[in-house]
Structure formats: structure tokens, C-alpha cells
Write a structure and sequence with these properties.
Layout (H helix, E strand, L loop, with lengths): L1 H16 L12 H15 L2 H19 L11 H8 L1
Length: about 80
């Protein structure tokens, strides 16, 4: 069972390992990846994942202090229709 879980984690990490996010949001951005890597570190105890989470968190915090942080609000067409009412 442990081997199956490790194989699946390796596949997931390979898929998102090289991914770059366009923003700092939770669902599509760095905050979601930080959440994933932090919990992966807690479960596995592998420092590599903790370091990734910390590095990404540093990038988000640096962006908060910049003039134009990576926060973007993505509105759906439905939300636009509701606000137009």
C-alpha cells in the first residue's frame, strides 16, 4: 500500500513540479501550491517539501510588499451578469 501511495505522489509531484502560477490565489496560484507542499511535508517529513512551501511563501510575501502584487480577481461570466442586475 505504501508503495502505491508513493507512486501516486511521485506522479502528482512530477505533474505540478515544473508548474508556474500566474498569481497568488489559492485555487490556481501559489497559495494552493504552498498548502499542498506544506501538508505533504507534514505527512512525509521530507524537508524538500517544507523548503518548497517556505520559498513560495516568501515569494508571495515579497509580492505583497511590492507595488503590484500577484493577487488577481477572476470573475466568471455568471458573476458579471449578477453584478449587472
Amino acid at each position: 500500500m505504501r508503495h502505491i501511495v508513493q507512486t501516486q505522489l511521485d506522479r502528482i509531484n512530477a505533474a505540478i513540479g515544473g508548474a508556474s502560477s500566474r498569481d497568488d490565489s489559492f485555487l490556481n496560484g501559489k497559495l494552493g501550491l504552498i498548502f499542498y507542499y506544506f501538508h505533504l511535508y507534514k505527512v512525509t517529513g521530507e524537508q524538500e517539501y517544507g523548503n518548497k512551501a517556505e520559498d513560495m511563501l516568501d515569494a508571495v510575501m515579497t509580492g505583497l510588499n511590492a507595488e503590484s502584487p500577484g493577487w488577481r480577481v477572476h470573475r466568471s461570466a455568471a458573476a458579471d451578469r449578477v453584478s449587472a442586475m
